[in-house]
Amino acid sequence: MRNNQDKILYGVDRVTVIVYVLLVVMGWLNIYAAVFNEEHQSIFDTSQKYGKQLIWISGAAIIAFSILVIDANFYTAFAYGFYGLFIIANILVIFLGREVKGSRSWFRFGDFGIQPAEFMKFATNLALAKFLSNQNIIVNQQFRLRFKDIIKNYKNTFIALFFVVTPLIIIKILQDETGLAIVFIAFIIVLYREGLSVNFLIFGILAAILFVVSLLVTQTSSLVLSLGIISFSSFLFIRRSRKNLITVTLIFLSAAGVVLTTNYVYNHLEPHQKVRIDVLLGRGTVDLKKEGYNVNQAKIAIGSGGFWGKGYLQGTQTKYDFVPEQDTDFIFCTVGEEWGFIGSTVVIFLELFLILRMIFLAERQRSDFSRIYGYGVAAVLFFHLAVNIGMTIGLMPVIGIPLPFFSYGGSSLWSFTILLFIFIKLDANRLLILR
User: Does residue 395 belong to any structural domain of this protein?
Assistant: First the structure.
């Protein structure tokens, strides 16, 4: 029996597991603080959210152990199977699920709900890792792994993006879950690590900047004219050739296209999405009692914590429910108010440490599948961390995604646990093979 246990735990990265446990426990304590009620003081009260979260945590522990028991080759062999299964689940929930906050994306089982969109993240990561690792387009060139002739190999690039875009479209269009859908953009980081040209990233960033600028500048024609002058000036200062002329022209046309279509895209957004963008950019007069309420109260809560915080269970903004969704999307407000700058720094440090640990472990993998999957874990965690905290302090629009291992909810906790522990198992298998 002992030998079997040693085999299961052999090679498991204990540092990662410890950080995971710390984050989950800290998250549970903050959920208790966020919804604390004098009438229900027991943290084990299952009629309250913190009691239910403990049930989810217990389930997560069972899931984590089960993942470590199963052979690592299982996840490689059934990667496409998981992807197909959760694609079907995300389609079926539209017909069989229950509507929650205007979105039909939940399967309800009594008092508990499961959101299949959350589990689509690890399934997509498995499928993407399976596809990329199976291609004979990854080569080692001067100690750097990259796609071989990726610009010429449009087929492989298209298929890789297909795995990412398909769940994004299903979750956004059919389920109307914008926040969870946008998360899949994080997998672009994986493609970049595997050799996708940095030009694609630069183009995406510049397109986003142009989109924002176009919303702030009322004279669209003036902006297009300015882009034309910049493009023409750039061509004068580089080697003038037909190829460079075509390149500069294409860049100008793409930029002009973004500018000219910005208002069209903006006008076809949902009203609440327009409001969130307006609040972020400071367009017009923001009513702090209506559209600007969430972010304003979040800033007040975090700022009131000062350097050391008000103390555990002493947060007035959270105790009196001034901050909406303070146990889920805005859980970081509880951290900032009660734990202050020091506590917030500790939480961010642990989250970033876990992400950097994933990258470190990914780089030491001997299989392409494990390395690619590891980068997918890091990308998803980083995206969640950056967007969640960014929207809480007003640097990003409010799109409603959880803080990894902190926010209340079984679906998010279980999906993050599965995402993380599959990689822990893959990393452990690296040592088992050498044993």
Answer: yes
